Amino acid sequence: MKCGVDGCDNQAFQDLDECALHCDKDCVHEDSINNVLSEFNRLLNFYILDEVLSRYIPDSEDERYIKEIAKYRKNNKCLYESMIFREKFCEYEIGFHGISFPSITLINYTETLIIFKNIWFDKCVFYVKFFNLKSTGVFFEQCVFKCEIYIEPAALFLLKKNSIFYQCVFEDKVYIGREGRYKYTFGESLFSGCVFENFIKFKNAILKKEPFLDIDERKLKLSTLQICDCNFDGGFKLNSTHISYLWIENTNFLIGFWMLKANVTTLNCTNVVIDGMFDASNSSFVRAKFNRTKFLDVADFEEVKFGKADGEFLESDEHTTQFKYVTFVNASNFKNTSFFYSLDFENVDLREQPNFLKSNINPHNTNRETFRIIKYSFDSRGNTLEANRFFVQEMKAFKNELKEEGGFWDKLVYNVNDLISEFGRNYIRPIIWLIASLILYTTLLYFHDWYFDSHNYFIHPWFNTLSVYANSAARNFLPLSRFLESKSGFEFVSLLFYIWFGILIWQIVVAIKRHTQR
């Protein structure tokens, strides 16, 4: 029975539907694995010879070359063993279409492949961990990689796209670079429109060009992307990506770092230098922490959402968006940005004032220094209305700090101020307090007059003596003494209410001014 793959004239292997070149290596029984590998090696040699003969007609005078082909067809030896083939094939390009390549730990066929000048893998399936094809130009189109793979630098065989892997599927882990002290240098873009079903790790890599191309055409979805000890000299784009966990450490981005409209669950950025522009506009991060990061150019976080608007808020600092020991050398833009959990902006080095216009910050667990920095940024621009808004948040944060370390009178003053007018932010509240106090005062006046029409003293005679002394002292309070003349017997209580009315009126004036000017 012939192979079930269209265009293949090979015999199907044993009870499978395909030949040893095209069959799924996972479906091969363990007892038959050695047989299928031997058959694969034989058919691969025939495939290469047929490809060469069909595309490159040998010189009829080169008898050695023709005899060598006939000998290797008969003896099924490795093509790499032939000096004649090594001399000839280095000038040729070859394409492999729909072949399923087994693990090179079981059979090493890469020695034959590296003879060629360029190789194009089209719709192939690989069960390999790594290829040693450094001296050969390669291009992978719509291939599937079944096992974890370690990618090392390789030359690009330019066909359709300017990347080594085009619309490929990686079903397991992908490692780019190497472990240890030394770094690999990648001179070409790696991926274009690829699908990753596990995670990607960049380690000790220098990338001269963008690793991901054409992300907008097919949105990049990753469970984990780890970047450690790398240099991105050609820029780095993660636009429209969906990443569960993004970890970047000890890495430099020379030209810039773009992740517009990205959706990241957890971002950890530690000891990173971004020389070019950083743009995360319209992205969302459930948890984000920047630690010892330097933004040497513009850092744009406009319309970014940190946290979840409808998510359950946790008391711990785990979900706090942190900018710890972060340096902003140029402008930083947080316009229309939402921090649904909390923000820690205390330990930042600002060379220019940030822009938090129309931003929203959950005050819970947000420290006072963060609000002070944002308030000052608006003050420096003359935006007093927004500065007033964050001044209120600063005072509330300070009030919360006093719960643990403040004195009694400090706690009393700040709590009363918050209760009356939210530190001058709410003018409706003191108006309500004023109306309620006025009603209470009027009620007490009527009660006083009604009670003493039929009684000589209140509660006990000694209380009458005390009230006479208190009322006499109130009449000696010169600023308000003339207002107390008509309140005979009620002067002291009236004085207290007048002082209270003055406080409320002042709070109303301050609150109204803070909604108009400062």
Fold and architecture overview:
The structure is a single chain. By secondary structure, this protein is α/β, with parallel strands linked by helices. The protein is built from 11 helices and 34 strands. The strands form 4 sheets. The protein has a 17-stranded parallel sheet that branches. The longest helix has 25 residues. It is rod-shaped and about 135 Å long.
Helical proportion, percent range:
25-40%
Mean pLDDT: 80
Q: How much is the radius of gyration in Å?
A: 39 Å
Count the E strands. 34
Q: What global shape is seen?
A: rod-shaped
- The number of helical segments is 11
Low-confidence stretches: none
Secondary structure class reads alpha/beta
Q: What's the N-to-C terminus distance?
A: 90 Å
Keywords:
518 residues, alpha/beta, seven-stranded parallel beta sheet, 11 helices, 32% helix
Helix/strand layout:
Elements: H1 33-55, H2 63-75, H3 83-89, E1 93-97, E2 100-101, H4 110-113, E3 118-122, E4 125-126, E5 137-141, E6 144-145, E7 149-151, E8 155-156, E9 163-166, E10 169-170, E11 174-177, E12 184-186, E13 189-192, E14 195-196, E15 199-203, E16 205-207, E17 212-213, E18 221-228, E19 231-232, E20 236-237, E21 242-253, E22 256-258, E23 263-274, E24 277-279, E25 284-295, E26 299-300, E27 305-306, E28 321-324, E29 326-328, E30 332-333, E31 338-339, E32 343-344, E33 348-350, E34 360-361, H5 368-380, H6 384-405, H7 408-421, H8 428-452, H9 461-475, H10 478-481, H11 491-514
Parallel strand pairs: 1-3, 2-4, 3-5, 4-6, 5-8, 5-9, 6-10, 7-11, 9-13, 10-14, 11-15, 12-16, 13-17, 15-18, 16-19, 18-21, 19-21, 20-22, 21-23, 22-24, 23-25, 24-26, 25-27, 25-28, 25-29, 26-30, 27-31, 28-32, 29-33, 31-34
Helix pairs in contact: 5-6, 6-7, 8-11, 9-11
